[in-house]
C-alpha cells in the first residue's frame, strides 16, 4: 500500500457529511465530547509518554492538560493518546534497544490516526529522539514539549546535589568507602521531584536539539519541570501547533543540514551529551540526509564551549536558563549559526533573536571572546580500530596523545568478574577496553562505556583512566572515554581482534584511534565470536537491520531515501 493509501485523511475525517464523518463524530460523542467539540478543526493528537514506569516523564500529564487548553483556545480539537515510554534506568537491556521501536510506534500511530498535527510530550533520554524520528517519517506538523529538568536536591553538606554527583558515591560504595547510613540516605536524595536529569545530560541535550531544530518553542528547554514557565510553554505549544497545522507545515521541512548544524553547534556550546551524535544522525536519516563524521568533527572544532554547566562545568541548568537559555546561546554563537533556519512558531531564528532582548548576564554563560573552552569537547576519530569512527569527549586537562597497553573485557559479565580482581594487571596508564556492547552485541548499546576504575587503583586515588568501548555512556558521566567504536565487535569490527597486552594509540589531535599490532598478525587472529541471532521478535528484527553508530543506529528500512549533500 502506498504511503498516501495508509494515511486515511487526517482530521478531515471528522468533518465530512458522510458515513465516515458521522461515525468519527459519533464515537467521540460517546466518549463525552460535545457536538461542537467534534466539529473543531484542526484535530491535534497529543502523544503522551507519562508513565509510572518512567518517573522522569511523570509530570507530563499536567503539561498535556496545558497543551489541550492551548489547542482549544486556538479553536482546535486536542485528542490525547499514549505511546511507548522509555525510562533510562528501567528499560532492559537498554532504552536505546527500544528507541527505534518507539519511533515506529509514534510514526504508525500518527499516520493511522485522524489527526492534522501532533504534539509530542517526551523527556527521558530516548523519548524525544524517537518521537522526532517518528514524526519526521509520518510527515505531519509536529511540535515537542519536553518534561524539563527535575529539581536539585541536598545530600550531606551538598546543597546543590545533581544526578552526576551520584556516580562517584556509587564508586565509593563499590570499593567499601561509603557506609550503610550514607547509602540509605542517598536513596532518598537522588530524585526529589519529577522531571529529567538536572544536568546537561542526554535528556536536556535532546530537548535543546528539539528547540534549535524548530520543534520546541524558543526558550522552552531549560525551565524546571514543575515551573509556571514550562506550563505556559506547553499552553503556547498547543496554540502554535494549531497555527502550524493551518499553515500545513510538516516536520521534514524543519530538518536540513543548516538546522542540524545549528543544533550540533548549540549543544557543543553547552557541553552536551555524546549520545546526541547518534540521535542527530538518526534524525538526519529520517529526513533523507547524512551528516557524517567529518562534518561533525569540523563543527565541534570550530564551536567554542560557552556554557559552564554540569556535569562538566560549575553551574546548574536553572542558571543557564536565567542567562537566556538556548536562544541566548544561539545569539552568542553569531555567524556560526544559520539565522534563516526555522524556529518553532513560524519565525526564523534571526527573527526570534531580534525580538528577544538579551537576558541578564550570568557566569554560567560566557561569550565567544571569553569561552569556557575555545572548541568543543567531542572529537570524532577514525583509525585501524574504528574504520567507521568513534567519539571521545575530551576533558580539559586530557593529554592529546596516549599510547599504552590494553586490558580487554568481553562483555559485562567478564567485566564484573575481573575488574576488581586484585591480580588484574593494570596501572593508571593502562587502557581498559570493553567490547561486545554495541547495538547488535549487547544488544542496544547500553550506557556502560564509562567502565569503572579497578578497585585497587581507585583506592590509590585514581579517578580517571582511558577507556575504549563499542557501548555508549550516560550524558551525565565524564572521563577520558572513547565510545561508539564502529563497526562494533559483534558485527566483525576490528575491536573483536584486540587482545589484552596489545598496545593502542589514541591521538585526539590528529583524530586517530589505532592499534599497534602488525597488520598481518592482527588480520590472522580469530575474532571474538558474535552473539547468536535472536530466535524471534523485535530482537531478531533489530539484530538483522540495525545500522552502526555512524549511521545513527536506526533500522535500515526506516531511513528515508537520501538526498545528495
Ligand atoms: Fe531519565 Fe536521566 S534518567 S532523564
Ligand atoms: Mg542518560
Automatic annotation (TrEMBL):
Gene3D superfamilies: IlvD/EDD C-terminal domain-like. Belongs to the IlvD/Edd family. InterPro entries: Dihydro-acid_dehy_C (IPR042096), DiOHA_6PGluconate_deHydtase_CS (IPR020558), ILV_EDD_C (IPR056740), ILV_EDD_N (IPR000581), IlvD/EDD_N (IPR037237), Sugar_Degrad_Dehydratases (IPR052352). PROSITE patterns: ILVD_EDD_1 (PS00886). This is Dihydroxy-acid dehydratase. GO terms for biological process: branched-chain amino acid biosynthetic process. The keyword rRNA-binding does not apply. It comes from Citricoccus muralis. Residues 42-351 form the Dihydroxy-acid/6-phosphogluconate dehydratase N-terminal domain. One of its GO terms (molecular function) is hydro-lyase activity. Keywords: 2Fe-2S, Amino-acid biosynthesis, Branched-chain amino acid biosynthesis, Iron, Iron-sulfur, Lyase, Metal-binding. The keyword Lyase applies. Residues 365-553 form the Dihydroxy-acid/6-phosphogluconate dehydratase C-terminal domain.
